[in-house]
Amino acid sequence: MQANAPNMSKGIQVALSAVIGGTAEALGGGKFSNGAVTRAYVMMLNHLGSEPQTRPIKHLLNENQIKQLQQKIKRATFSHRSSWANYDPNKNSNMPNWDVSMEIDGVEGGTIYTAENVEIWLGNETLIVDIDYFPNTQGSWTNMIDEPLGKDLSPNGRLWFYTKDVGRGQVLQINFHNRIDFDNYNRFIMPILKKN
Q1: pTM for the full predicted model
Q2: How many domains does the chain have?
Q3: Which residues have a Cβ under 8 Å from the Cβ of 40 and sit 6 or more positions away?
């Protein structure tokens, strides 16, 4: 059965397992139904429930697309920084507001794109990062740069450029090569943190 499993539906695999388990139980002197039910559950939970998960395919960004994203990352970085520079939580009830288009040429919405060792400008220095780009069919504008929600499993840190008006969806993710660059970028975009 294992050799033909890729050619069989899950329902057929469960049914065959039930027949084999019931038959084996009956030959051993037990009830067919007990063996059939047990073997069907084993097939569903142990074999079919643990099918390997596939990762989405990432498409490489070309040189022109990377240059476009570098400019957009720079614009978003400085928009974020300048909007927070004079923010005072005691005086302002609303968070700073800004938005930047992250749309680039030659990409399809809903597809994941990637580039490694991309240089991003940060004031007087540059950082080398990896980026993942998620163009959105509803628009690829960003208005917030933040750490991912939940536990970040990246030891070097990463930041998401969240999609404007699409919940907490992301349009861009920066993966840092080391924690020092991650901390430097955070301090740069949040000058209010330096004051405290």
Answers
A1: 0.66
A2: 2
A3: 14, 15, 17, 18, 21
